[in-house]
Design a protein that fits this description.
With 282 residues, the protein is α/β, with parallel strands linked by helices. The protein is built from 13 helices and nine strands. The protein has a five-stranded parallel beta sheet with strand order 2-5-8-1-9. A two-stranded antiparallel sheet has the order 3-4. The longest helix is centred in the last third of the chain and has 18 residues, at 264-281. The chain starts with 13 loop residues before the first helix and ends with a helix.
């Protein structure tokens, strides 16, 4: 049985590795929730790489329907071709476009299927997938055939908690919530992306980053990916750690803050705090 022990470029906590391996052992989808930027989507990529398995990604949108994952039948093109006398119309398969589940079920080796941001779709979307994910098969009406998985795939489903998922769907999943990394875990994440980075720069950057996240009134807290972008810019610009040490929410807005603050309300909040801090300290 395949086991996930982490990856070189992905710092997986012990409880996350336990969750992944439990889902694999139970042959149930692993439902991952957590703040944006906590590595939910990346987990599927790293898991596939670690197990040397093909990765099939299904990025869900607000307009996505469950049948899109099975297949689409282009009846309009077939009608048009029949009017033009195209011989392709004799074979209905020419007008079937396999979806991600079809691709997954017909994979010759055990794949990892990522259903990304399932909560973006209509509330009925998860329920409409229950039978296919349970039985690992579906029926194609146009060809009267059943598409069945010969090997049960590893299914990773991510959610940002934008909508509550149906109880019937949740019962069929193994659930794990990725907590936002603490400073120690985050330092390890930073080291995997920037090997040999100066410890003082990391320490000061993390202090400023976590203080920024804890600022009352912040609309969007910066995520791990935004921290990594910020550190990359700090390294490129060779920012002195001393500059970061002087950065506090009440006195000075962080340098290159555009990598961390992603809306004007939060920028204005920090500008006001810095102004008030300077005036109070003056």
């Amino acid at each position: 049985m395949s086991r996930f022990e982490g990856a070189e470029r992905y710092v997986a906590t012990e409880d996350l590795k336990i969750a992944v391996n439990a889902a694999i052992a139970l042959e149930r989808p692993l439902l991952i929730k957590g703040e944006p930027g906590t590595g939910k989507t990346v987990l599927a990529y790293e898991l596939a790489a670690a197990l040397d398995a093909p990765l099939i990604t299904w990025h869900v949108k607000s307009t996505t329907k469950a049948h899109n994952g099975l297949y689409d039948y282009d009846a309009v093109s077939r009608l048009r071709d029949s009017q033009l006398g195209d011989p392709r119309v004799a074979e209905v398969r020419n007008y079937l476009k396999p979806g991600k589940l079809w691709e997954t079920f017909t994979s010759p080796v055990r794949p990892v299927l990522l259903i990304d941001e399932i909560d973006k779709a209509d509330i009925e979307f998860p329920n409409d997938l229950l039978q296919e994910l349970d039985r690992m098969e579906f029926f194609v009406q146009e060809t009267a055939e059943t598409i069945r998985a010969e090997v049960r795939p590893i299914v990773i489903i991510t959610s940002n908690n934008e909508k509550e998922l149906p109880d019937a769907f949740l019962r069929r999943c193994f659930f794990h919530y990725i907590r936002f990394p603490d400073a120690e875990t985050m330092a390890a994440i930073v080291e995997t992306h920037f090997p040999g980075i100066k410890s003082r720069l990391t320490a000061e950057a993390l202090r400023a980053f976590y203080e920024l996240r804890e600022t009352p009134g912040l609309k969007k807290k910066p995520s791990t990916s935004e921290l990594l972008d910020w550190l990359k810019l700090l390294l490129v610009d060779d920012v002195d750690p001393e500059t970061l040490r002087q950065t506090t929410a009440a006195k000075l807005i962080p340098p290159l803050h555009g990598a961390l603050l992603k809306n004007e309300q939060d920028v204005h909040l920090f500008e006001r705090l810095a102004f008030l801090g300077r005036r109070g300290g003056g």
